[in-house]
User: Fold this.
Amino acid sequence: MKEDKTDTSALNTATVTEHLQTVISVKNLVKKFGHFVANDHLTFEVYKGEIFGFLGANGAGKTTAMRILCGLSSPTSGELTVGGYDVYKQAELIKRNIGYMSQKFSLYEDLTIAENIRFYAGIYGLSRQQRKEKEDRMLKKLGLEPERDKLIASLPLGWRQKLSFLIALLHDPQIVFLDEPTGGVDPITRRQFWDFIYEAAAEGKTIFVTTHYMDEAEYCDRVSIMVDGRIAALDTPDVLKKQFNSEDMNGVFLQLARGATRTD
Amino acid sequence: MKTIKYILQKEFAQIRRNKTMLRMIVMLPLVQMLVLVFAATYDLKNVDIYVVDQDLSDTSRGLINHFEASPFFNIHDASFDLEDGINQLKKEESDFVLVIPPDFERSLVREDEADVQLLINAIDGNKASLIYQYTSNIISAYNKQIIMRWKGLPDFNPPMRVDARDNYWFNPELDYKWYMAPGILSILVTIIGMFLSGMNLVREKEMGTIEQLNVTPIKKWQFIVGKLLPFLVIALLDLAFGLLIARLVFNLPVEGSLVLLFGFGALYLVGVLGLGLFISTVTETQQQVMFVTFFFIMVFVLMGGIFTPVESMPHWAQQLDRLNPIYYFIRIMRMVCLKGSGFSDLLEEFVSLTIIGISFLSLAIWRYRKTS
Assistant:
Protein backbone atom coordinates (compact mmCIF):
# COMPACT_ATOMS: atom_id res chain seq x y z
CA MET A 1 0.00 0.00 0.00
CA LYS A 2 2.61 2.44 1.17
CA GLU A 3 4.78 1.91 -1.90
CA ASP A 4 1.84 2.33 -4.17
CA LYS A 5 1.17 5.69 -2.76
CA THR A 6 4.69 7.09 -3.14
CA ASP A 7 4.83 5.89 -6.74
CA THR A 8 1.68 7.60 -7.91
CA SER A 9 2.50 10.65 -5.88
CA ALA A 10 5.88 11.02 -7.54
CA LEU A 11 4.30 10.61 -10.95
CA ASN A 12 1.83 13.25 -10.02
CA THR A 13 4.26 15.87 -8.94
CA ALA A 14 6.20 15.22 -12.12
CA THR A 15 3.16 15.96 -14.29
CA VAL A 16 2.44 19.11 -12.41
CA THR A 17 5.89 20.57 -12.65
CA GLU A 18 6.16 19.73 -16.34
CA HIS A 19 3.00 21.49 -17.49
CA LEU A 20 1.76 23.80 -14.78
CA GLN A 21 -1.36 24.39 -16.76
CA THR A 22 -3.87 26.36 -14.71
CA VAL A 23 -7.34 24.78 -14.52
CA ILE A 24 -8.84 26.80 -11.69
CA SER A 25 -8.04 30.45 -11.30
CA VAL A 26 -9.45 32.52 -8.45
CA LYS A 27 -8.72 36.21 -7.97
CA ASN A 28 -10.09 38.18 -5.06
CA LEU A 29 -13.08 35.94 -4.46
CA VAL A 30 -15.42 37.53 -1.94
CA LYS A 31 -18.62 35.92 -0.70
CA LYS A 32 -20.83 37.68 1.79
CA PHE A 33 -23.99 36.46 3.51
CA GLY A 34 -25.46 39.72 4.72
CA HIS A 35 -22.71 41.23 6.86
CA PHE A 36 -20.92 37.95 7.31
CA VAL A 37 -17.89 37.59 5.04
CA ALA A 38 -17.50 33.87 4.37
CA ASN A 39 -14.73 34.25 1.81
CA ASP A 40 -12.49 37.28 2.14
CA HIS A 41 -10.48 38.01 -1.01
CA LEU A 42 -9.32 34.50 -1.84
CA THR A 43 -6.70 34.27 -4.56
CA PHE A 44 -5.21 31.00 -5.74
CA GLU A 45 -4.60 28.79 -8.75
CA VAL A 46 -4.96 25.06 -9.16
CA TYR A 47 -2.94 23.21 -11.80
CA LYS A 48 -3.90 20.37 -14.05
CA GLY A 49 -3.46 16.90 -12.53
CA GLU A 50 -2.65 18.01 -9.02
CA ILE A 51 -4.34 17.08 -5.78
CA PHE A 52 -5.18 20.38 -4.16
CA GLY A 53 -6.06 20.19 -0.47
CA PHE A 54 -8.37 22.78 0.99
CA LEU A 55 -7.98 22.79 4.77
CA GLY A 56 -9.52 24.80 7.54
CA ALA A 57 -11.50 24.56 10.74
CA ASN A 58 -15.28 24.27 10.66
CA GLY A 59 -16.76 27.52 9.49
CA ALA A 60 -13.54 28.75 7.88
CA GLY A 61 -15.29 29.04 4.50
CA LYS A 62 -14.02 25.95 2.64
CA THR A 63 -17.37 24.58 1.58
CA THR A 64 -18.60 28.02 0.57
CA ALA A 65 -15.65 28.49 -1.78
CA MET A 66 -16.06 25.02 -3.22
CA ARG A 67 -19.76 25.49 -3.83
CA ILE A 68 -19.00 28.69 -5.71
CA LEU A 69 -16.47 26.95 -7.92
CA CYS A 70 -19.06 24.23 -8.69
CA GLY A 71 -21.67 26.78 -9.64
CA LEU A 72 -23.97 25.93 -6.72
CA SER A 73 -23.63 29.36 -5.21
CA SER A 74 -22.82 32.70 -6.79
CA PRO A 75 -19.86 34.80 -5.67
CA THR A 76 -20.31 38.36 -4.40
CA SER A 77 -17.26 39.52 -6.35
CA GLY A 78 -13.98 38.32 -7.80
CA GLU A 79 -12.68 36.83 -11.04
CA LEU A 80 -13.07 33.09 -11.32
CA THR A 81 -12.50 30.56 -14.06
CA VAL A 82 -12.89 26.80 -13.81
CA GLY A 83 -11.61 24.59 -16.63
CA GLY A 84 -11.11 27.75 -18.67
CA TYR A 85 -14.75 28.81 -18.32
CA ASP A 86 -16.04 31.90 -16.59
CA VAL A 87 -18.00 31.14 -13.40
CA TYR A 88 -20.49 33.97 -13.98
CA LYS A 89 -21.29 33.44 -17.63
CA GLN A 90 -20.48 29.84 -18.43
CA ALA A 91 -21.70 27.98 -15.37
CA GLU A 92 -23.44 25.31 -17.46
CA LEU A 93 -20.27 24.63 -19.47
CA ILE A 94 -18.33 24.25 -16.23
CA LYS A 95 -20.87 21.69 -15.07
CA ARG A 96 -20.10 19.43 -18.04
CA ASN A 97 -16.47 19.35 -16.99
CA ILE A 98 -16.59 18.89 -13.25
CA GLY A 99 -17.50 16.14 -10.86
CA TYR A 100 -18.76 16.93 -7.36
CA MET A 101 -19.18 14.91 -4.25
CA SER A 102 -20.87 16.80 -1.47
CA GLN A 103 -20.50 16.55 2.25
CA LYS A 104 -24.06 15.36 2.48
CA PHE A 105 -24.44 11.92 0.96
CA SER A 106 -26.26 12.37 -2.29
CA LEU A 107 -27.03 9.13 -4.04
CA TYR A 108 -30.68 8.05 -4.04
CA GLU A 109 -31.09 5.64 -1.16
CA ASP A 110 -34.31 4.23 -2.53
CA LEU A 111 -32.69 3.30 -5.83
CA THR A 112 -30.38 0.37 -6.49
CA ILE A 113 -26.69 0.80 -7.33
CA ALA A 114 -27.40 0.09 -10.99
CA GLU A 115 -30.33 2.52 -11.06
CA ASN A 116 -28.23 5.31 -9.57
CA ILE A 117 -25.54 4.72 -12.16
CA ARG A 118 -28.06 4.60 -14.97
CA PHE A 119 -29.68 7.83 -13.83
CA TYR A 120 -26.50 9.89 -13.56
CA ALA A 121 -25.04 8.38 -16.74
CA GLY A 122 -28.27 9.35 -18.48
CA ILE A 123 -28.24 12.91 -17.16
CA TYR A 124 -24.67 13.37 -18.42
CA GLY A 125 -25.69 11.97 -21.80
CA LEU A 126 -23.57 8.81 -21.82
CA SER A 127 -24.57 6.20 -24.37
CA ARG A 128 -25.88 2.85 -23.20
CA GLN A 129 -22.63 1.22 -24.36
CA GLN A 130 -20.47 3.70 -22.43
CA ARG A 131 -22.59 3.25 -19.37
CA LYS A 132 -22.37 -0.53 -19.43
CA GLU A 133 -18.57 -0.41 -19.69
CA LYS A 134 -18.19 2.10 -16.89
CA GLU A 135 -20.68 0.32 -14.71
CA ASP A 136 -18.92 -3.02 -15.07
CA ARG A 137 -15.49 -1.55 -14.43
CA MET A 138 -16.70 0.46 -11.47
CA LEU A 139 -18.48 -2.41 -9.75
CA LYS A 140 -15.55 -4.72 -10.34
CA LYS A 141 -13.20 -2.22 -8.78
CA LEU A 142 -15.41 -1.93 -5.73
CA GLY A 143 -16.15 -5.64 -5.61
CA LEU A 144 -19.83 -4.73 -5.64
CA GLU A 145 -20.89 -6.77 -8.66
CA PRO A 146 -23.17 -9.10 -6.67
CA GLU A 147 -24.69 -6.02 -4.99
CA ARG A 148 -25.68 -4.40 -8.30
CA ASP A 149 -29.41 -4.62 -7.66
CA LYS A 150 -29.34 -3.79 -3.98
CA LEU A 151 -30.71 -0.55 -2.65
CA ILE A 152 -28.16 2.07 -1.64
CA ALA A 153 -29.87 2.24 1.76
CA SER A 154 -28.60 -1.28 2.50
CA LEU A 155 -24.92 -0.45 1.90
CA PRO A 156 -22.48 0.54 4.66
CA LEU A 157 -21.30 4.15 4.64
CA GLY A 158 -17.78 3.43 3.39
CA TRP A 159 -19.07 1.67 0.30
CA ARG A 160 -21.56 4.39 -0.37
CA GLN A 161 -18.83 7.02 -0.27
CA LYS A 162 -16.60 5.12 -2.66
CA LEU A 163 -19.51 4.51 -4.98
CA SER A 164 -20.51 8.12 -4.82
CA PHE A 165 -16.95 9.17 -5.76
CA LEU A 166 -16.87 6.86 -8.77
CA ILE A 167 -20.28 8.10 -9.88
CA ALA A 168 -18.94 11.65 -9.72
CA LEU A 169 -16.29 10.48 -12.20
CA LEU A 170 -18.78 8.77 -14.50
CA HIS A 171 -18.68 11.45 -17.20
CA ASP A 172 -14.87 11.80 -17.16
CA PRO A 173 -14.72 15.30 -15.73
CA GLN A 174 -11.36 17.08 -15.88
CA ILE A 175 -11.82 18.50 -12.38
CA VAL A 176 -13.29 16.72 -9.36
CA PHE A 177 -14.45 18.56 -6.24
CA LEU A 178 -14.63 16.50 -3.06
CA ASP A 179 -16.13 18.05 0.04
CA GLU A 180 -14.92 16.11 3.08
CA PRO A 181 -15.28 12.83 1.24
CA THR A 182 -13.92 10.66 4.06
CA GLY A 183 -15.89 12.11 6.97
CA GLY A 184 -17.05 9.35 9.31
CA VAL A 185 -15.35 6.59 7.35
CA ASP A 186 -13.07 3.92 8.85
CA PRO A 187 -9.26 4.14 8.30
CA ILE A 188 -9.08 1.22 5.86
CA THR A 189 -11.80 2.65 3.67
CA ARG A 190 -10.13 6.05 3.85
CA ARG A 191 -6.92 4.48 2.56
CA GLN A 192 -8.79 2.87 -0.34
CA PHE A 193 -10.52 6.12 -1.02
CA TRP A 194 -7.19 7.89 -1.38
CA ASP A 195 -6.00 5.18 -3.73
CA PHE A 196 -8.95 6.03 -5.94
CA ILE A 197 -8.02 9.71 -5.73
CA TYR A 198 -4.43 8.99 -6.80
CA GLU A 199 -5.64 6.88 -9.68
CA ALA A 200 -7.89 9.68 -10.91
CA ALA A 201 -5.07 12.22 -10.57
CA ALA A 202 -2.73 9.89 -12.47
CA GLU A 203 -5.19 9.99 -15.36
CA GLY A 204 -4.67 13.74 -15.48
CA LYS A 205 -7.75 14.75 -13.52
CA THR A 206 -7.43 17.63 -11.11
CA ILE A 207 -8.62 16.90 -7.57
CA PHE A 208 -9.85 19.68 -5.31
CA VAL A 209 -10.49 18.22 -1.88
CA THR A 210 -11.48 19.62 1.51
CA THR A 211 -10.67 17.65 4.61
CA HIS A 212 -10.35 17.74 8.38
CA TYR A 213 -7.82 14.95 8.58
CA MET A 214 -4.26 16.25 8.72
CA ASP A 215 -2.76 12.93 7.62
CA GLU A 216 -4.78 13.34 4.44
CA ALA A 217 -3.28 16.77 3.97
CA GLU A 218 0.08 15.06 3.62
CA TYR A 219 -1.22 13.15 0.58
CA CYS A 220 -1.97 16.36 -1.30
CA ASP A 221 0.40 17.95 -3.79
CA ARG A 222 -0.35 21.38 -2.43
CA VAL A 223 -2.54 22.54 0.42
CA SER A 224 -4.14 25.82 1.30
CA ILE A 225 -5.14 26.45 4.89
CA MET A 226 -8.08 28.76 5.48
CA VAL A 227 -8.54 30.70 8.68
CA ASP A 228 -11.55 32.98 9.20
CA GLY A 229 -12.43 33.17 5.52
CA ARG A 230 -8.89 33.98 4.40
CA ILE A 231 -6.13 31.83 2.98
CA ALA A 232 -3.49 31.81 5.70
CA ALA A 233 -0.98 29.58 3.94
CA LEU A 234 -0.64 27.86 0.56
CA ASP A 235 2.19 25.56 -0.53
CA THR A 236 3.35 21.94 -0.69
CA PRO A 237 3.13 20.08 2.61
CA ASP A 238 6.95 19.84 2.78
CA VAL A 239 7.52 23.56 2.39
CA LEU A 240 4.80 24.36 4.93
CA LYS A 241 6.25 21.98 7.49
CA LYS A 242 9.67 23.56 7.08
CA GLN A 243 8.24 27.06 7.22
CA PHE A 244 6.33 26.43 10.44
CA ASN A 245 9.03 24.28 11.88
CA SER A 246 6.73 21.35 12.42
CA GLU A 247 7.08 17.58 12.08
CA ASP A 248 3.68 17.09 10.51
CA MET A 249 0.77 19.02 9.02
CA ASN A 250 -1.09 18.82 12.29
CA GLY A 251 1.49 21.16 13.82
CA VAL A 252 1.23 23.56 10.91
CA PHE A 253 -2.53 23.61 11.16
CA LEU A 254 -2.62 24.17 14.90
CA GLN A 255 -0.24 27.11 14.68
CA LEU A 256 -2.36 28.76 12.00
CA ALA A 257 -5.79 27.92 13.38
CA ARG A 258 -4.97 28.97 16.93
CA GLY A 259 -5.53 32.59 15.97
CA ALA A 260 -8.97 31.86 14.52
CA THR A 261 -11.90 33.79 15.96
CA ARG A 262 -14.67 31.86 14.24
CA THR A 263 -15.86 28.50 15.40
CA ASP A 264 -19.18 26.85 15.04
CA MET B 1 -35.72 14.51 -24.45
CA LYS B 2 -33.48 11.63 -23.43
CA THR B 3 -32.66 13.39 -20.18
CA ILE B 4 -36.36 13.54 -19.35
CA LYS B 5 -36.66 9.83 -20.07
CA TYR B 6 -33.98 9.13 -17.46
CA ILE B 7 -35.68 11.36 -14.90
CA LEU B 8 -38.98 9.59 -15.49
CA GLN B 9 -37.33 6.20 -15.12
CA LYS B 10 -35.84 7.27 -11.81
CA GLU B 11 -39.07 8.82 -10.49
CA PHE B 12 -41.15 5.77 -11.29
CA ALA B 13 -38.57 3.47 -9.69
CA GLN B 14 -38.79 5.59 -6.53
CA ILE B 15 -42.58 5.78 -6.57
CA ARG B 16 -42.77 2.01 -7.01
CA ARG B 17 -40.79 1.54 -3.80
CA ASN B 18 -42.76 4.11 -1.82
CA LYS B 19 -45.48 1.92 -0.34
CA THR B 20 -47.18 4.73 1.55
CA MET B 21 -47.52 6.77 -1.59
CA LEU B 22 -48.91 3.82 -3.54
CA ARG B 23 -51.49 3.18 -0.85
CA MET B 24 -52.55 6.83 -0.96
CA ILE B 25 -52.89 6.71 -4.73
CA VAL B 26 -55.33 3.80 -4.42
CA MET B 27 -57.14 4.71 -1.20
CA LEU B 28 -57.81 8.36 -1.86
CA PRO B 29 -60.12 7.86 -4.86
CA LEU B 30 -61.94 5.05 -3.07
CA VAL B 31 -62.64 7.05 0.06
CA GLN B 32 -63.43 10.30 -1.73
CA MET B 33 -65.80 8.71 -4.18
CA LEU B 34 -67.52 6.31 -1.80
CA VAL B 35 -67.79 8.57 1.23
CA LEU B 36 -67.68 12.19 0.13
CA VAL B 37 -70.06 11.93 -2.80
CA PHE B 38 -72.74 10.48 -0.55
CA ALA B 39 -72.02 12.89 2.26
CA ALA B 40 -71.86 16.08 0.20
CA THR B 41 -75.52 16.21 -0.70
CA TYR B 42 -78.03 19.00 -0.78
CA ASP B 43 -80.93 16.64 -1.17
CA LEU B 44 -83.47 17.55 1.47
CA LYS B 45 -84.66 14.43 3.22
CA ASN B 46 -85.97 13.47 6.63
CA VAL B 47 -87.00 16.94 7.76
CA ASP B 48 -88.43 16.56 11.25
CA ILE B 49 -91.72 18.37 11.86
CA TYR B 50 -93.21 19.19 15.17
CA VAL B 51 -96.97 19.56 14.77
CA VAL B 52 -99.03 21.79 17.02
CA ASP B 53 -102.58 21.09 15.92
CA GLN B 54 -104.93 23.21 18.02
CA ASP B 55 -107.86 22.77 15.70
CA LEU B 56 -108.14 18.99 15.58
CA SER B 57 -110.57 19.17 12.69
CA ASP B 58 -110.97 17.14 9.53
CA THR B 59 -109.31 19.86 7.55
CA SER B 60 -106.30 20.17 9.82
CA ARG B 61 -105.81 16.41 9.86
CA GLY B 62 -105.97 16.40 6.09
CA LEU B 63 -103.17 18.90 5.94
CA ILE B 64 -101.03 16.89 8.35
CA ASN B 65 -101.66 13.78 6.28
CA HIS B 66 -100.28 15.61 3.27
CA PHE B 67 -97.07 16.28 5.14
CA GLU B 68 -96.89 12.73 6.31
CA ALA B 69 -97.27 11.44 2.79
CA SER B 70 -94.35 13.54 1.53
CA PRO B 71 -90.99 11.73 1.29
CA PHE B 72 -89.21 14.81 2.61
CA PHE B 73 -90.97 15.16 5.93
CA ASN B 74 -91.23 13.17 9.11
CA ILE B 75 -93.75 13.94 11.80
CA HIS B 76 -91.39 13.89 14.70
CA ASP B 77 -93.75 14.75 17.53
CA ALA B 78 -96.99 16.59 18.22
CA SER B 79 -98.79 18.39 21.03
CA PHE B 80 -101.21 21.27 21.67
CA ASP B 81 -98.64 23.50 23.23
CA LEU B 82 -96.62 25.87 21.09
CA GLU B 83 -93.99 26.16 23.85
CA ASP B 84 -93.10 22.48 23.49
CA GLY B 85 -92.60 22.97 19.79
CA ILE B 86 -90.31 25.96 20.31
CA ASN B 87 -88.28 24.00 22.87
CA GLN B 88 -87.80 21.19 20.40
CA LEU B 89 -86.65 23.71 17.82
CA LYS B 90 -84.12 25.06 20.30
CA LYS B 91 -82.81 21.60 21.09
CA GLU B 92 -82.45 20.93 17.36
CA GLU B 93 -84.75 17.95 17.68
CA SER B 94 -87.13 19.27 15.06
CA ASP B 95 -86.39 21.33 11.96
CA PHE B 96 -89.66 23.17 11.92
CA VAL B 97 -92.87 23.63 13.80
CA LEU B 98 -96.21 23.63 12.02
CA VAL B 99 -98.83 25.51 14.00
CA ILE B 100 -102.52 25.10 13.10
CA PRO B 101 -104.60 27.59 15.10
CA PRO B 102 -107.85 26.57 16.90
CA ASP B 103 -110.23 28.25 14.47
CA PHE B 104 -108.54 26.91 11.35
CA GLU B 105 -111.47 25.01 9.82
CA ARG B 106 -114.01 27.59 10.88
CA SER B 107 -112.29 30.55 9.27
CA LEU B 108 -111.73 28.50 6.16
CA VAL B 109 -115.46 27.86 5.85
CA ARG B 110 -116.64 31.29 6.95
CA GLU B 111 -114.07 33.58 5.55
CA ASP B 112 -112.68 31.40 2.76
CA GLU B 113 -109.28 31.90 4.25
CA ALA B 114 -107.21 30.49 7.09
CA ASP B 115 -103.64 30.86 8.34
CA VAL B 116 -101.12 28.32 9.47
CA GLN B 117 -97.84 29.26 11.06
CA LEU B 118 -94.43 27.82 10.13
CA LEU B 119 -91.48 28.22 12.49
CA ILE B 120 -88.35 27.15 10.67
CA ASN B 121 -84.86 26.68 12.07
CA ALA B 122 -82.85 28.91 9.74
CA ILE B 123 -79.27 28.40 10.95
CA ASP B 124 -78.71 26.86 7.54
CA GLY B 125 -80.49 29.45 5.40
CA ASN B 126 -80.36 27.29 2.33
CA LYS B 127 -82.05 24.40 4.03
CA ALA B 128 -84.65 26.71 5.59
CA SER B 129 -85.68 28.17 2.27
CA LEU B 130 -85.88 24.70 0.76
CA ILE B 131 -88.09 23.60 3.62
CA TYR B 132 -90.28 26.64 3.03
CA GLN B 133 -90.55 25.86 -0.66
CA TYR B 134 -91.51 22.25 -0.11
CA THR B 135 -93.99 23.25 2.58
CA SER B 136 -95.60 25.83 0.32
CA ASN B 137 -95.92 23.22 -2.39
CA ILE B 138 -97.67 20.85 -0.04
CA ILE B 139 -100.00 23.55 1.25
CA SER B 140 -100.93 24.79 -2.21
CA ALA B 141 -101.59 21.23 -3.34
CA TYR B 142 -103.84 20.84 -0.36
CA ASN B 143 -105.55 24.11 -1.22
CA LYS B 144 -106.41 22.87 -4.68
CA GLN B 145 -107.89 19.74 -3.17
CA ILE B 146 -110.07 21.74 -0.81
CA ILE B 147 -111.30 23.98 -3.61
CA MET B 148 -112.16 21.00 -5.76
CA ARG B 149 -113.99 19.30 -2.94
CA TRP B 150 -116.11 22.23 -1.90
CA LYS B 151 -116.91 23.69 -5.23
CA GLY B 152 -116.78 20.40 -7.05
CA LEU B 153 -120.39 20.35 -8.35
CA PRO B 154 -120.89 18.17 -11.41
CA ASP B 155 -121.68 21.12 -13.72
CA PHE B 156 -119.00 23.28 -12.28
CA ASN B 157 -116.54 24.83 -14.71
CA PRO B 158 -113.14 24.73 -13.15
CA PRO B 159 -111.43 28.13 -13.01
CA MET B 160 -108.86 28.80 -15.73
CA ARG B 161 -105.34 28.19 -14.71
CA VAL B 162 -101.79 27.75 -16.02
CA ASP B 163 -100.13 24.46 -15.41
CA ALA B 164 -96.35 24.24 -15.32
CA ARG B 165 -94.99 21.04 -16.82
CA ASP B 166 -91.36 20.71 -15.94
CA ASN B 167 -88.74 18.54 -17.55
CA TYR B 168 -85.29 18.39 -16.00
CA TRP B 169 -82.56 18.17 -18.59
CA PHE B 170 -79.11 16.55 -18.23
CA ASN B 171 -79.91 15.17 -14.81
CA PRO B 172 -83.54 14.10 -15.17
CA GLU B 173 -83.89 12.56 -11.77
CA LEU B 174 -82.12 15.44 -10.05
CA ASP B 175 -79.60 13.00 -8.65
CA TYR B 176 -77.31 15.06 -6.52
CA LYS B 177 -74.56 12.48 -6.73
CA TRP B 178 -74.31 13.07 -10.46
CA TYR B 179 -73.65 16.69 -9.74
CA MET B 180 -71.16 16.10 -6.93
CA ALA B 181 -69.14 13.20 -8.34
CA PRO B 182 -67.45 15.15 -11.17
CA GLY B 183 -66.66 17.94 -8.71
CA ILE B 184 -65.19 15.64 -6.09
CA LEU B 185 -63.15 13.94 -8.80
CA SER B 186 -61.69 17.29 -9.81
CA ILE B 187 -60.60 17.89 -6.25
CA LEU B 188 -59.18 14.40 -6.04
CA VAL B 189 -56.84 14.75 -9.01
CA THR B 190 -55.80 18.19 -7.78
CA ILE B 191 -54.83 16.91 -4.34
CA ILE B 192 -52.99 13.88 -5.69
CA GLY B 193 -51.07 15.80 -8.33
CA MET B 194 -50.24 18.97 -6.43
CA PHE B 195 -49.19 17.37 -3.16
CA LEU B 196 -47.19 14.53 -4.65
CA SER B 197 -45.22 16.63 -7.12
CA GLY B 198 -44.50 19.46 -4.69
CA MET B 199 -43.43 17.18 -1.88
CA ASN B 200 -41.31 15.11 -4.21
CA LEU B 201 -39.22 18.06 -5.36
CA VAL B 202 -38.72 19.46 -1.90
CA ARG B 203 -37.75 16.02 -0.63
CA GLU B 204 -34.72 16.17 -2.93
CA LYS B 205 -33.83 19.39 -1.16
CA GLU B 206 -34.22 17.80 2.25
CA MET B 207 -32.15 14.76 1.29
CA GLY B 208 -29.48 16.88 -0.38
CA THR B 209 -29.74 14.98 -3.65
CA ILE B 210 -30.75 18.15 -5.45
CA GLU B 211 -27.18 19.47 -5.04
CA GLN B 212 -25.85 16.55 -7.00
CA LEU B 213 -28.37 17.31 -9.75
CA ASN B 214 -27.55 20.99 -9.71
CA VAL B 215 -23.90 20.34 -10.54
CA THR B 216 -24.94 18.38 -13.63
CA PRO B 217 -25.62 20.13 -16.94
CA ILE B 218 -29.34 19.29 -16.60
CA LYS B 219 -31.54 22.09 -17.93
CA LYS B 220 -34.05 23.76 -15.66
CA TRP B 221 -37.02 22.95 -17.90
CA GLN B 222 -35.93 19.33 -18.19
CA PHE B 223 -35.85 19.00 -14.44
CA ILE B 224 -39.27 20.59 -13.90
CA VAL B 225 -40.92 18.68 -16.72
CA GLY B 226 -39.32 15.48 -15.44
CA LYS B 227 -40.83 16.17 -12.04
CA LEU B 228 -44.23 17.08 -13.47
CA LEU B 229 -44.91 14.22 -15.89
CA PRO B 230 -44.87 11.27 -13.46
CA PHE B 231 -47.45 12.89 -11.21
CA LEU B 232 -49.55 14.02 -14.14
CA VAL B 233 -49.72 10.39 -15.23
CA ILE B 234 -50.60 9.22 -11.71
CA ALA B 235 -53.30 11.88 -11.35
CA LEU B 236 -54.81 10.86 -14.70
CA LEU B 237 -54.80 7.23 -13.59
CA ASP B 238 -56.67 8.30 -10.49
CA LEU B 239 -59.12 10.24 -12.64
CA ALA B 240 -59.79 7.05 -14.60
CA PHE B 241 -60.11 5.04 -11.42
CA GLY B 242 -62.49 7.59 -9.87
CA LEU B 243 -64.63 7.74 -13.02
CA LEU B 244 -64.87 3.97 -13.02
CA ILE B 245 -66.05 3.95 -9.40
CA ALA B 246 -68.60 6.69 -10.16
CA ARG B 247 -69.83 4.73 -13.15
CA LEU B 248 -70.21 1.50 -11.19
CA VAL B 249 -71.56 2.91 -7.96
CA PHE B 250 -73.74 5.88 -8.97
CA ASN B 251 -74.17 5.03 -12.62
CA LEU B 252 -72.67 8.42 -13.50
CA PRO B 253 -73.09 8.97 -17.23
CA VAL B 254 -70.22 10.13 -19.41
CA GLU B 255 -72.16 11.65 -22.28
CA GLY B 256 -69.18 13.36 -23.91
CA SER B 257 -65.92 11.98 -25.20
CA LEU B 258 -63.50 10.36 -22.79
CA VAL B 259 -60.57 11.49 -24.93
CA LEU B 260 -61.74 15.09 -24.54
CA LEU B 261 -62.15 14.63 -20.79
CA PHE B 262 -58.66 13.23 -20.30
CA GLY B 263 -57.17 15.77 -22.70
CA PHE B 264 -58.63 18.54 -20.57
CA GLY B 265 -57.49 16.65 -17.47
CA ALA B 266 -53.90 16.68 -18.68
CA LEU B 267 -54.08 20.36 -19.61
CA TYR B 268 -55.55 21.22 -16.22
CA LEU B 269 -52.92 19.19 -14.38
CA VAL B 270 -50.06 20.99 -16.15
CA GLY B 271 -51.34 24.13 -14.46
CA VAL B 272 -51.91 22.85 -10.95
CA LEU B 273 -48.77 20.72 -10.90
CA GLY B 274 -46.86 23.72 -12.22
CA LEU B 275 -48.17 25.66 -9.25
CA GLY B 276 -47.28 22.81 -6.88
CA LEU B 277 -43.74 22.71 -8.25
CA PHE B 278 -43.47 26.48 -8.05
CA ILE B 279 -44.44 26.30 -4.37
CA SER B 280 -41.74 23.69 -3.81
CA THR B 281 -39.10 25.91 -5.41
CA VAL B 282 -39.79 28.66 -2.89
CA THR B 283 -39.98 26.39 0.17
CA GLU B 284 -37.38 24.27 1.91
CA THR B 285 -39.24 21.51 3.74
CA GLN B 286 -42.11 19.15 3.08
CA GLN B 287 -44.06 20.74 5.92
CA GLN B 288 -43.87 24.15 4.29
CA VAL B 289 -44.97 22.72 0.96
CA MET B 290 -47.93 20.99 2.58
CA PHE B 291 -49.00 24.11 4.36
CA VAL B 292 -48.83 26.44 1.37
CA THR B 293 -50.35 23.90 -1.02
CA PHE B 294 -53.18 23.26 1.40
CA PHE B 295 -53.93 26.97 1.47
CA PHE B 296 -54.18 27.20 -2.32
CA ILE B 297 -56.28 24.05 -2.66
CA MET B 298 -58.65 25.30 0.03
CA VAL B 299 -59.20 28.62 -1.72
CA PHE B 300 -59.48 27.05 -5.16
CA VAL B 301 -62.00 24.45 -4.00
CA LEU B 302 -64.24 26.78 -2.03
CA MET B 303 -64.26 29.31 -4.85
CA GLY B 304 -64.45 26.68 -7.55
CA GLY B 305 -68.20 26.22 -7.46
CA ILE B 306 -68.38 22.67 -6.26
CA PHE B 307 -70.82 23.38 -3.43
CA THR B 308 -72.13 26.80 -4.31
CA PRO B 309 -72.93 28.11 -7.78
CA VAL B 310 -70.29 30.57 -8.94
CA GLU B 311 -73.08 32.67 -10.52
CA SER B 312 -74.34 33.59 -7.05
CA MET B 313 -70.95 34.80 -5.84
CA PRO B 314 -70.26 38.54 -5.71
CA HIS B 315 -68.98 40.02 -8.95
CA TRP B 316 -65.40 40.44 -7.75
CA ALA B 317 -65.26 36.81 -6.66
CA GLN B 318 -66.46 35.73 -10.09
CA GLN B 319 -63.71 37.81 -11.67
CA LEU B 320 -61.17 36.20 -9.35
CA ASP B 321 -62.41 32.79 -10.40
CA ARG B 322 -61.02 33.44 -13.87
CA LEU B 323 -57.63 32.65 -12.35
CA ASN B 324 -58.90 29.57 -10.56
CA PRO B 325 -58.03 26.43 -12.54
CA ILE B 326 -60.31 24.21 -10.51
CA TYR B 327 -63.31 26.39 -11.40
CA TYR B 328 -62.78 25.57 -15.08
CA PHE B 329 -62.10 21.93 -14.49
CA ILE B 330 -65.21 21.35 -12.37
CA ARG B 331 -67.27 23.00 -15.12
CA ILE B 332 -65.61 20.90 -17.79
CA MET B 333 -66.11 17.68 -15.85
CA ARG B 334 -69.79 18.40 -15.30
CA MET B 335 -70.40 19.59 -18.83
CA VAL B 336 -68.66 16.67 -20.50
CA CYS B 337 -70.07 14.01 -18.19
CA LEU B 338 -73.67 15.20 -17.87
CA LYS B 339 -74.30 17.35 -20.96
CA GLY B 340 -71.96 15.68 -23.39
CA SER B 341 -70.38 19.00 -24.34
CA GLY B 342 -67.84 18.90 -27.14
CA PHE B 343 -64.62 20.81 -27.67
CA SER B 344 -66.38 23.73 -29.37
CA ASP B 345 -68.60 24.23 -26.28
CA LEU B 346 -65.50 24.42 -24.11
CA LEU B 347 -63.35 26.82 -26.12
CA GLU B 348 -63.30 29.47 -23.41
CA GLU B 349 -62.24 26.92 -20.80
CA PHE B 350 -59.58 25.61 -23.16
CA VAL B 351 -58.04 29.03 -23.72
CA SER B 352 -58.12 29.90 -20.00
CA LEU B 353 -56.61 26.61 -18.86
CA THR B 354 -53.90 26.88 -21.52
CA ILE B 355 -52.94 30.34 -20.31
CA ILE B 356 -53.00 29.22 -16.65
CA GLY B 357 -50.97 26.11 -17.48
CA ILE B 358 -48.27 27.96 -19.40
CA SER B 359 -48.05 30.64 -16.72
CA PHE B 360 -47.68 28.32 -13.72
CA LEU B 361 -45.28 26.02 -15.52
CA SER B 362 -43.07 28.90 -16.66
CA LEU B 363 -43.16 30.34 -13.16
CA ALA B 364 -41.89 27.05 -11.73
CA ILE B 365 -39.11 26.74 -14.32
CA TRP B 366 -38.11 30.35 -13.86
CA ARG B 367 -38.05 30.13 -10.08
CA TYR B 368 -36.12 26.86 -9.88
CA ARG B 369 -32.52 27.86 -9.15
CA LYS B 370 -29.51 25.71 -9.83
CA THR B 371 -27.34 28.38 -8.24
CA SER B 372 -28.37 29.83 -4.91
